[in-house]
Amino acid sequence: MTTAEQPNDEESLPSSPTHGPYPTPRSLQGSPGPLPVGSLPTRFGSGRSLAAASSSSSVASSFWVGPTGRIMRRRVGKGWHVRPVTLGVGLLVGFFFLMNWWMLFRIQDSGPGRGRVLKYRLLSANSSHVHIPVLAFEFYVRINEERAEDGAGRIGKAGQREKATKNYICEAVGKGCSCAGREGNNGYMMVSANGGINQQRVAVCNAVAVARLLNATLVLPKFMYSSVWRDVSQFGDIYQEEHFINYLKPDIRIVKELPEELQSLDLEAIGSVVTDADVVKEAKPSFYLKHILPILHLNRVVHFVGFGNRLASDPIPYHLQFVPKVQEIGALLIRRIRQNATQFGTLDRHLVGPFAESKLKGKRYHAHKASTRYLALHLRFEIDMVAHSLCDFGGGEEERRELEAYREVHFPALMELKKTKKLPSPAALKSEGLCPLMPEETVLMLAALGFNRRTRIFLAGAHIYGGKSRMAALTTLFPNLVTKENLLSSSEIQPFMNFSSQLAALDFIGCTAADAFAMTDSGSQLSSLVSGFRVYYGGGKMPTIRPNKRRLADIFMKNNTIEWKVFETRVRKAIRQTKRVFSRPTGRSVYRYPRCDECMCNTDLSA
What we know:
Pathway: Glycan metabolism. Belongs to the glycosyltransferase GT106 family. It is found in: Membrane. It is a single-pass membrane protein. The protein has helices spanning about 25-30, 55-60, 65-110, 140-150, 195-215, 235-240, 240-245, 260-265, 285-300, 325-335, 350, 355-360, 385-390, 395-410, 410-420, 425-430, 440-450, 465-475, 485, 490-495, 500-510, 525-535, 550-555, 565-575; strands at about 130-135, 190-195, 215-220, 220-225, 255, 275, 300-305, 375-380, 455-460, 480, 515-520, 545, 600-605. It is an alpha/beta fold. The chain has 4 domains: about 10-90, no CATH class; about 190-305; about 325-380 and about 435-540 and about 545-580, Rossmann fold; about 380-430, no CATH class. Strands 2, 3, 4, 5, 6 and 7 form a 6-stranded parallel beta sheet that branches. It has a 5-stranded parallel beta sheet with strand order 10-9-8-11-12. Strands 1-13 form a two-stranded antiparallel ribbon. Helix 5 links the parallel strand 2 (about 190-195) and strand 3. The longest helix has about 40 residues, at about 65-110. It is globular.
């Protein structure tokens, strides 16, 4: 209701239970004595007394002087106290029967109009419903139209069943909630994303959302050089620029560079450079409207430097597709992990595009070779992770000096914090589950879960800290462990060498396409994106092992004093308690938890 529509008459405003024009049944029952007759207006606020609504003779009799009048007053008071109770009980019983009827109606209703309503159901461990992706806000209608034409999508328009996946339907009432496209009239927005490929991927998606929010023209994002990853790859080396621009054209305007009249500006001097120190982590949209939009209006350009995790609750990155060379080698990698199987998996089309089909080209007349199932393992145990954790990994004084020197170079802020404040000890960090799992601990976890020497494992990651000696336990127990380096020939992997972000893109494809995915650090951006992608597109059939490191730390500390059967049972229980995928908690990343009303809906496969 607007200000102009608000009534000025005091009697027409909603009133409180204490001072309102008509008391609630609870307030009437709580009255210790009879109320004055003239003080009880009707429930419609007419100003007449409740006693006057019955009969004038009753009112008169309630005020007779003497013993008779006293008795009559008690009867009248009792009657007005009993009636609300009876009415309340009747309403409660009626509501109960109404709810039962409504639930039975929803269960039994199987008419043609049933699919026209978007249904949200609570999750349960044994639910027969799976979550199906539905596009976030303004991309909804356009994606439905495009994917309905080629039959390759997972989301249908209202009243239309997809050909490719008949069981996966998501229909909505009326028109979609797509907003009109923005022309970028408020100025230009530049982004220089830091970190590795997965941090940069999130930053690009956040930039699209912020540009849409601010009605700004997005300049094609740049990637900052990282002293950790040492990769000079830019956006166009990893993702398809033209696809990115054209795909989002109905939503935001994207250009490859600033116009000439703005290129000569000193952005830092005019106050248009915004660093991560200026923007809080996971900032709300209101922050950008309040603080960034005025900069756009004043200077016509704003430049975000870093932009790591600077927006909360973002859309899933549909608009990013790997360049053909990454897709082609990614498809080759998947095929070799599966030992040259001719069948492609559930997520292959989403990862490698047309190259998923090309694997079958020329082999259709042969019987399909059975696909080898494999486990993908992201062993996040590179030196940057090890050094930043401040944990002890059993390497003694030599390890401590090496990691301390690495922190001095790459994490000066952490070293300054270490000098000025008392930080938790390595033992305390370990007991709280804040240390990454070592390869030796990962071996014990996988063995306790039932994986054995015959299990084929694809290992993702760069240079594991400690080298071959640290990996000895893993390679000995799991001899079928493979990496992209030993699956691809030197000529095939050579174009990606010295480009860690492009190599990480191959790891992303290999992990996401796996039959099962296990991570050792749930805080890793790669693990978050892979697990979220598998939930979003996997139809509830792509399991992810997400260990509870705090529980495992307690188990590992006692592994010398317990039998293997007890150890195995405790590890499986710890994993079982953390493997279920629930709706996205408030404030958590939508990339890791895409199961939310904004991105996915429920459908019944038995319907």
